[in-house]
Amino acid sequence: MEKDQLFQYLLRFGDNTLVLGHRVSEWCGHAPVLEEDIALANTALDLIGQTQMWLGLAGEVEGKGRSADDLAMLRDAWDFRNVLLVEQPNGDFGQTLMRQFLFDLWHDLVLTELQNSAEPRIAEIAEKASKEVRYHLERSRDTVIGLGDGTAESHARMQAALDLLYPFVGEMSAPDEIDLAAHEAGIGPDLAEIDQRYRAALSDLMGEATLTLPADSFAHKGGKSGARHSEHLGHILTQMQWLQRAYPGAVW
Amino acid sequence: MYAQMVKSTGDGVKSRDEMSDEERAFQDRIDADEKIEPKDWMPEGYRKTLIRQIGQHAHSEIVGQLPEGNWITRAPTLERKAILLAKVQDEAGHGLYLYCAAETLGVSRDELTEDLLSGRMKYSSIFNYPTLTWADMGAVGWLVDGAAIMNQVPLQRTSYGPYSRAMIRICKEESFHQRQGYDIMLKLANGTGDQKRMAQDALNRFWYPSLMMFGPSDKDSVHSAQSMAWKIKINTNDELRQKFVDQTVPQAEFLGLTVPDPDLKWNEETAHYEFTEPDWSEFFDVIKGNGPCNAERLAARNKAWDEGAWVRDGLLAHAEKKAARRVAAE
Description:
The complex is a heterodimer. By secondary structure, chain A is mainly alpha-helical. Chain A has helices at about 5-25, 35-60, 70-75, 85, 95-115, 120-150, 150-165, 170-175, 175-185, 190-210, 230-240, 240-245. Chain A has a single domain, classed as Up-down Bundle (Ferritin). Chain A has 12 helices and no strands. Chain B is built from 13 helices and 2 strands. Chain B has helices at about 20-30, 45-65, 65-70, 80-105, 110-115, 135-155, 160-190, 195-210, 220-230, 235-255, 280-290, 295-305, 310-330; strands at about 265, 270-275. In chain B, a hairpin with a 4-residue loop joins strand 1 (about 265) and strand 2. The radius of gyration of chain B is 21 Å and the shape is globular. Chain B starts with 20 loop residues before the first helix and ends with a helix. The chains are: A mainly alpha, B mainly alpha. At the A-B interface, helix 1, helix 2, helix 3, helix 6 and helix 7 of A face helix 3, helix 4, helix 7, helix 12 and helix 13 of B.
């Protein structure tokens, strides 16, 4: 795997956790119940911690002296490599937890495989992150089931969230040349195989949550390749990067 | 602590002759520094005052998430973002311990929450001030958490067991909060001209509101006298405010920042700083609901609660269905 490809591959993980961590942190102080405020902050905190590891390694691999902070705070939208799913707005609590579950399920499968990566630094990060993500998945899965199989209103809201977000699921497991190169080098998992396991687990879980997977399996793409992000990413970066952009070179 | 002007019985402290046998025995236990536990007999006034005080403290932790939450998405580095997230998460956790402590006195978390949302119960005046720049994250940690610690450290010895134990846990985390705030200020104070200006501006805006956190002088307050006799308040507001000023002024000097009080001076004789009292009319305006952010803070909490109703109902309905299915299967 070429150095630039590995760099791009690492950005995908780091940008997924950065952008999702940002989204989840937007909830701070506004959750439906105190325990959820704590859990959401905790999830965001884990994701930001993982970002430091992934982007730190990405900067090392790139070899141009860029730190994790430089990569997070000083790239524009076209250089971000997160999937479209994680940049989608929070919506209501149900939409946030549906987004979280759809991502956690994939994240957990991938991190489990990455622990056997031929690149030891990746295996090491995956091992640490995997422990946290297992807990994220447990919580988001339980919440999706609970709200799907709750009241008529909670069911309707969760079905709407699933319908809205399902078109963003396909991108995660659709391999492109970088994913294929990573798999070939023994660095990353076989995404086609991940996709099968993901779909089977998703289908089981949605049954338990009494929710119906949309028939149309159309998938929006362009996030992890950077070809076409949604309009939302620019607004996220406007907030996230404000201080670093407004006061260049300052140390915080 | 984040409780201000907590009303007690309003009748003043009873003399031993005026006390019933139960009240006398209760006061003897307090005087002997014994902890009062939830199932022990306690005067109704003690219970009510504690509910007000612990409830106000819990509400302050919850509303206190908002001014700092305001900067999480804009934190300048990943590390600062992580630290701020951890801090706000701690505050929600403190709210949880405190609501649990209040529940041991026979009031539910939902009842307390409704009293907060309707405005019947207060939270600390300090959270009605806006956080306008990143330096405010420094000032809030350094000054606001600093003032809170001043109050909370003695409360670890408070007479009510569950409150005292909650306070011991909370104090451990608060000192980390204060250090992170001071560390932000230190970076800014040693930074660029803009950063120094930002730090000074934050100190200017947060100095007097921080002094107000201790509440107005209570040397003549019957409520405070009763609370002190019951050891649910350990020091007077003026004592704590003085201690805070004495501790904070040298820290400001170390940062190279100027405390916005031209009359501030060290008194060799008393070994204390002399300082200007905050504008108490501003304090009473804020308490009445006219602070810069009262309406927004309360609206944000009400919105979170109202919009979360379907989530709470949904999860409850699911738990009931699950329990019913379990019963049916047995």
